[in-house]
Amino acid sequence: MSDRERQEVLDSLCEALTLMQRSMYGALVPDSGSNIAYATSKARDLRDVASFRDRILRSGDQIVVTGLPSFGEHTEVAGIVLTAMKFDPDIRSGAVVRFSQKTVDVLKDLFYEVCCFDRAREPPGISTMDWGVASCCREGVPDVIFDCGAPGKEALIRIFAENPVEVVNIIAKIRSRS
Fold it and tell me: Range of 59's domain?
């Protein structure tokens, strides 16, 4: 991967963040924070995936990000993007938003492909997110993967697309329907 591609990935994340600050509202940010990630076209590991070092947090009805995107951050979102790319290398971006049944219903009403997994069925010794995403990708990567949480684990919605601007456009559609 070239330095140019890496810079394009970082620039796209910054553009998406600007759009996200206009289209995402605090109620969509999980208690644990949100993040958005974007992988290079031939990503193999976390060093090839950029995300925000500091999570995207809620401040009232606004979102706050205190850092810039960088490669190699060990974020949940970077990991799920790598897992999704194993099933469809064109799906290089993802974000996490707060779970609510209303949000899932909005996404279904907008005709996004939605899949869920049950954390209670997770095999021992496997990362929850790798297993959860993989279990929903048997016939391709759905637009949305969610879980309803587990004791001590927050329920989350994961949104996937080819690039971070597309991910943020899905988030904007959620807001317009909420």
Answer: 3-177
Cα atoms in the 13 Å half-sphere on the side-chain side of 23: 20
Kindly report the length of the chain: 178
Token code pair at residue 95 = 């974000």
CATH, residue 166? 3.40.225.10
Q: Which residues contact 158 (CB under 8 A, 6 or more apart)?
A: 77, 80, 94, 95, 96, 133, 144, 145, 146
The domain tally of the chain equals: 1
Tokens describing residue 134: 């993989």
User: How confident is the model over 84-140, as pLDDT tens digits?
Assistant: 999 999 999 999 999 999 999 999 999 999 999 998 888 888 887 789 999 999 899
What are the residues whose beta carbons fall under 8 Å from the beta carbon of 30, sequence distance 6 or more? 96, 97, 98, 99, 154, 156
